[in-house]
Amino acid sequence: MKKNMGNADRIARIIVGLIALGAGYALGMNYWLMGIGAIILITGLMNSCLIYSMLGMKTSSDGSGSNSATPEVPATPEVPATPEVPKVPEVPTVPQTEEPKEEMPAEEVQEEASSMEEENPKESESMNEEPKEEMLAEEVQEGKKEI
Questions:
Q1: Statement: residue 78 has pLDDT above 60
Q2: DSSP assignment of the chain, as one string?
Q3: Which end of the chain is least crowded, N or C, by CB within 10 Å?
Q4: 7-17 pLDDT, tens per residue?
Q5: pLDDT band at residue 23, thresholds of 50, 70 and 90?
Q6: How many domains does the chain have?
Q7: What crossing angle do the helices spanning 121-128 and 106-119 adopt, rounded to 10°?
Q8: 58 CB-near residues (< 8 Å, 6+ apart)
Q9: What is the extent of the structural domain holding 22?
Q10: Which residues contact 31 (CB under 8 A, 6 or more apart)?
């Protein structure tokens, strides 16, 4: 197994393991306490902890200079910089030549229409009447007029 414990951690485990084994024996062969003490003592003697390995932790000073429990973080590969996206040129806007027309209220529309009828009364009447040829044709069919 790979060594992942520092000297302070190893010494503390050996002492705690021996105390737990002695207490388990003194308390009338308490096998649970003796089992936990044995596991702690063995990890201290082997200088390796399975739980530290699973968590990626290391308390030894293998060139890191640190004796604290810090997880081993794998070096991240450098990611190449993303290429710069070219900017889209702005399209010039065409200035508006006319101002938007405002809608006229219905009253003003009616006033204009009535003023136009007053100016040209014949045109407004002729628009409402049917053409004379069609009227004559209908009268002939009905038998009112003779040709």
A1: yes
A2: ------HHHHHHHHHHHHHHHHHHHHTT--HHHHHHHHHHHHHHHHT--HHHHHHTEE-S-SSS---S-EE--PPPPPPPPPPPPPPPPPPPPPPPSSPPPPPPPHHHHHHHHHHHHHH-HHHHHHHHSPPHHHHHHHHHHHTS---
A3: C
A4: 999 999 999 99
A5: very high
A6: 1
A7: 100
A8: 4, 52, 64, 69, 70, 71, 72
A9: 7-66
A10: 24
Locate tokens 């197994």: which residue? 1
Residue 97 lies in a domain: no
Burial class (CB in 10 A: 0-12, 13-18, 19+), 120: exposed
Fill in the amino acid letter for 32.
Answer: W
Q: Which two tokens stand for residue 101?
A: 């027309």
In the block, which residue shows the tokens 């890191």? 64
